[in-house]
Design brief:
Order of helices and strands: HHEEHHEHEEHHH
Radius of gyration: 27 Å
Shape: elongated
Strand order of the largest sheet: 2-1-5-4-3
Helix content: 55-70%
Distance between the termini: 58 Å
């Protein structure tokens, strides 16, 4: 990922983000990549991604500058208001040109200024089911974000939403694949154990499986683990030789 950490040209940054494959990359790595690529071309000193968890709580999952982004994100979560939360709630981009002149969120203004933030853009991250987070840009300058910067940030937000959804789907698919592999492995061991029991006790396949279940119940050991013990050690847990 080293070649993606510092990209000056906005088009090149978006291209690299678009073509960076979601394979073994984790969601965390995708988030880090988005935050690191987005800041310089948009002209922000700090960038963060806020995501909504399954309980509806919003939190910062990665930022490029903890002293700035985390501080301003944190006061918004604490007060329950601000451009980041408004973007998530309304599904619309929130632009603050000057914190000194901003009147929509007086609860956070002074602390944002104390953190050195004068300008903010908060873009909603959307899926088909609604907003699941926000991409936040912070600048120490008033009127820091011109129209072209706001438009570019919007492109990054759209890409960020897509990449995060891709990464989430990949991890979900990987987890499903892992579960399927485990199931297949367990099935193979169970079939092997059934074969051993059929030969040992001169019983049918159905009777062998019923014996596996009975051993499992009596020993409080899962069927797949009983099967594994029979295959590996030749022993039937709880059954005297």
């Amino acid at each position: 990922m080293d070649d993606l950490n510092s990209v000056a040209d906005p088009a090149d940054a978006l291209e690299k983000l678009a073509t960076h494959a979601v394979s073994e990359e984790t969601v965390g790595a995708e988030i880090r990549l988005i935050v690191e690529l987005a800041g310089p071309p948009v002209g922000a000193q700090a960038v963060s991604i806020s995501l909504v968890d399954k309980n509806g709580k919003v939190g910062t999952v990665f930022s490029s500058n903890a002293a700035t982004a985390d501080a301003v994100d944190g006061v918004q979560y604490e007060m329950g208001t601000g451009p980041c939360l408004q973007a998530i709630r309304d599904g619309e981009t929130q632009v603050v040109s000057s914190m000194l002149k901003e009147s929509r969120w007086p609860e956070i203004t002074n602390r944002a200024l104390y953190a050195g933030v004068q300008s903010v853009i908060a873009y909603p991250l959307k899926s088909k089911d609604g907003c699941f987070g926000a991409l936040n840009f912070y600048s120490s300058k008033e009127e820091a974000f011109a129209d072209d910067a706001i438009a570019l940030g919007s492109r990054f937000a759209a890409r960020a939403a897509a990449r995060l959804l891709d990464a989430t789907r990949y991890e979900a698919a990987s987890e499903l694949a892992s579960q399927l592999r485990q199931a297949l492995e367990s099935r193979a061991e169970i079939d092997q154990a059934k074969g051993i029991l059929m030969e040992r006790h001169k019983i049918s396949a159905d009777e062998a499986f019923e014996r596996l279940k009975l051993i499992s119940q009596r020993s409080s050991i899962k069927v797949r683990d009983v099967a594994r013990m029979i295959v590996a050690e030749g022993v039937e847990p709880g059954i005297k030789p």
